[in-house]
Amino acid sequence: MDLLGLLALGELLAFERIALDARLAPDLGRRAQLSEAAVGEIRNYRLLADRIAELGADPAEAMAPFKEAIRSFDASTAPRDWLEALVKVYVGDAVADDFFRAVAARLDSGDRAIVEQVLQAGPAAEFAAAEIRAAVETDASAAGRLSLWGRRLVGEGINRAQVVAASHEHLAGLIAADGGSVDAVLRHLTRAHQERMKAVGLNN
Amino acid sequence: MDLLGLLALGELLAFERIALDARLAPDLGRRAQLSEAAVGEIRNYRLLADRIAELGADPAEAMAPFKEAIRSFDASTAPRDWLEALVKVYVGDAVADDFFRAVAARLDSGDRAIVEQVLQAGPAAEFAAAEIRAAVETDASAAGRLSLWGRRLVGEGINRAQVVAASHEHLAGLIAADGGSVDAVLRHLTRAHQERMKAVGLNN
User: Fold this and answer.
1) Do the Cβ atoms of A22 and B35 come within 8 Å?
2) Which of A123, B20, B137, B189 has fewest C-beta within 10 Å?
3) What's the domain count of chain B?
4) Domain span at residue B76?
5) What are the residue boundaries of the Ferritin-like domain, all occurrences included (chains A, B) (predicted)?
6) Residues of A with CB below 8 A from B22's CB?
7) What's the gap in Å between the CA of A187 and the closest CA on chain B?
């Protein structure tokens, strides 16, 4: 339940953040494209909230313990321009997907089915990846700045994840159920992040 | 095309505004409900943008002339709390629907079909109306404050509409095609607004 609450809140706040950051777009066409892509996140939220309700809990209550961690992550990583906003969408979505994959094996079959559906989505990340790739190709100087920004996002994300894991023992146990450690999961996420930065022309 | 551009931008910015104002919610459950309802607006945007493209124009270009009017309306009517945000959703959606209805008769059949679809939606307005009604029932003092706020929203909206009509002759002609005047359309919108304020327990 902790896990579903954390994931549901992550999707809900990703939706709000993307709709908000779309206003940084250089033109109305791209602004609309990013806003439309944000709908994928709120659909994921609905799948997770329905599952929480099905299990007899209240989605708002299940999400509440994680509000401060995500809020403080967002406050410390507010993008200053359109490309930084896109890197945050791309990195954030991807890390969330990796996290889903890492925990999927430990869930029962009902929850696993939801995770598979959630992993299918991701129009916001696809749009962001294409835009970043194009920007880096036409302006090589953007690559250095955005690579640094990507590292900062992942660093801040790992900090918050460690705080959350430390204060929710049950969650930490679930994440590291195979005898692995939370640190091992975070190292895996970092490696996957580095691969993905390369895929859009950024360094790690 | 002017008309479709104005309506498309109205829906796109309504989506962003609702996603943004959802953060004023007193709890995560209602915050999520309003965010989910915002999806109706972005769907309407997509219908209108597709129609603009079908007619051989670029949606971003069709919307651009109206950006300043809507931006300045939003800047002068930023809600200070959750109930003000809901009244803005309710009044804004309803006035947009009235406007759609007023112009629908003047459109060709392809555009009329889109307007009918757009008029079917409105989960955000329904959610807002139910919340306002409940708030006014439990706290009578809220009614006076929100009634005043509703009048202010409509006043500001009519101001901007007059500016837009004055600077887009073709649009003004289309709106008042039956020999009526833009003023008559605005008077009609005002009357319909008053009925709707009553429906949620507010005065006009």
Assistant:
1) no
2) B137
3) 1
4) 2-199
5) 2-176
6) 16
7) 31
